[in-house]
Amino acid sequence: MHPSFYYRWKRAREDHGGEEWVSACGRASWRRHTHSQRRSAYHASAFGVRRPLRYMAHKLDLDDEQIDTLAAILNVLKTERAQARLDEQRSVAGVAAAIEGEHFDQAAAAEALTARVTAAERLKEEVLNTLRKTHDMLDPEQRKRLAYLLRSGQLTI
Fold first, then answer.
1. Which of 89, 138, 144, 157 makes the best surface tag, with the fewest CB within 10 Å?
2. 67-118 residue pLDDT tens
3. Are 108 and 97 in contact (CB under 8 A)?
4. What are phi and psi of 104, to 5 degrees?
5. Rounded to 10 degrees, what is the CA torsion of 145, 147, 151, 157?
6. At what angle do helices 64-100 and 51-60 cross, to 10 degrees?
7. What's the CATH fold of domain 48-157?
8. Do 98 and 104 meet the contact criterion of CB atoms below 8 Å apart?
9. CATH 1.20.120 residue ranges in the chain?
10. 71 with 53: CB under 8 angstroms?
11. How many angstroms separate the CA atoms of 87 and 14, rounded?
């Protein structure tokens, strides 16, 4: 069974307050679970994490230690990507401010665009660092599977 099924099933149950869709003898209804029957977030499965990690864990057949390591690696990359997006928004605001005045402020526009280039360089370094750490963590067979996922477009960096 594909791991995204578990996520969707869990989401559907949460959206209905712990109720479960039951169809018996042609009569469909929502059945409410008692508190003891509900799974808490603490007891959720190891795949209750964001999609890239869950997908990679499934496709590469990672063990628990590798999943924990990859989660930490992807978390750092996610933070760096968010920072790069923020820096890009700031540079757009800086360029807009340079254009807004009576005269074009070339120095302010250049400074805003330099900040964008710096953010892109930091992101490039973090992606390289992530790839190196992921390579070190995987065994040769898992590396082959990861390379296939990248070449086929099923996984992007």
1. 157
2. 999 999 999 999 999 999 999 999 999 999 999 988 999 999 999 999 999 9
3. yes
4. -70, 125
5. 110
6. 140
7. Four Helix Bundle (Hemerythrin (Met), subunit A) (1.20.120)
8. yes
9. 48-157
10. yes
11. 36
